[in-house]
Amino acid sequence: FSVVLRLLGIDEWQHTGFQYDVISCLNLLDRCEHPLHLLQDIRLSLVPSTGRLILAAVLPFQPYVEVGGKWQRPKEHIKVQGKTWEEQVTNLSSEVFRKAGFEVEAVTRLPYLCEGDMYNDYYVLDDAVFVLKVSDNTSESA
Length: 142
Hints:
By secondary structure, the protein is of the alpha+beta class. It has a single domain (about 20-135), classed as Vaccinia Virus protein VP39 (Rossmann fold), CATH 3.40.50. Helices cover about 20% and strands about 30% of the residues. The protein has helices spanning about 35-45, 85-100; strands at about 20-25, 50-60, 65, 70, 100-115, 120-135. A four-stranded mixed beta sheet has the order 1-2-6-5, with helices on one face. The protein has a two-stranded antiparallel sheet with strand order 3-4. The longest helix is centred in the middle third of the chain and has 15 residues, at about 85-100. It is globular. One of its GO terms (molecular function) is protein-L-histidine N-pros-methyltransferase activity. This is Methyltransferase-like protein 9. InterPro entries: MerR-type_HTH_dom, METL9, SAM-dependent_MTases_sf. Pfam families: DREV (PF05219).
């Protein structure tokens, strides 16, 4: 009995032909240039009825990407409505994730410690951590 492990590159995992039981996307949605495309790739890569996505996002949602040492807005824009943490969780669940073909099974709030700056050693932010499944009424073209 032997196990062969292979580390897949950032642009390889979704093109392997595999379907995954679990995919984690932790604090990435607000830092990638194509978040809607990422959600589509994840949906298509999960085992249809049993696969799960564990997704964490810092709220309030403030997307930007670093390109060449400069911060800029992503090429695809996810607009998250709401002023409070709870309102943004509700909007992500009912609008963003639903339109991307997911249903929320569970959500929790966790502290997220991130790198500081010249003023603070670290920052404590509010993460929303979702367990998502592919929606039963989602087609391949969604």
